[in-house]
Amino acid sequence: xxxxxxxxxxxxxxxxxxxxxxxxxxxxxxxxxxxxxxxxxxxxxxxxxxxxxxxxxxxxxxxxxxxxxxxxxxxxxxxxxxxxxxxxxxxxxxxxxxxxxxxxxxxxxxxxxxxxxxxxxxxxxxxxxxxxxxxxxxxxxxxxxxxxxxxxxxxxxxxxxxxxxxxxxxx
Length: 171
Description:
By secondary structure, the chain is mainly alpha-helical. The chain has one domain. Helices cover 65% and strands 4% of the residues. The protein contains seven helices and two strands, in the order ααββααααα. The chain has helices spanning 2-7, 13-26, 50-68, 79-94, 99-118, 124-155, 162-165; strands spanning 39-42, 46-48. It has a two-stranded antiparallel sheet with strand order 1-2. A hairpin with a 3-residue loop joins β1 (39-42) and β2 (46-48). α2 packs parallel to α4 (79-94). The protein is flat.
């Protein structure tokens, strides 16, 4: 997508590539969506299994109409690239096995959305919405990191799987 923008793709080339990429990734027959796929390319941080692949396919299928709806934006806006970047963060979030990867996916998902909110600057409420979203996002990120640091201090690990094992007994 970046190369298309740099090369000066004519018209809606970037939009077409974004729609095709999201449709191909959402396809259940895509190479990355095999139902028998089980892998841990980054053990303890990122894993792939049938449940995460189904969740990613649903997310991408739900994003497909929005990607196709970007035709209302001008061809010079980076909206398709920002949408793909946000979807990449969402897919990373689904496959995360540690708080570190969860935070990375959360930030990769939300940072492009900050820019997407501001793309419509001709509307007066766009700047206000962008500022409010930035402040709330910053506060949420700080709260999340504080909670993760407390959990890490108490358990000594960032693995998500360690916390159900170490939860106190009920009552």
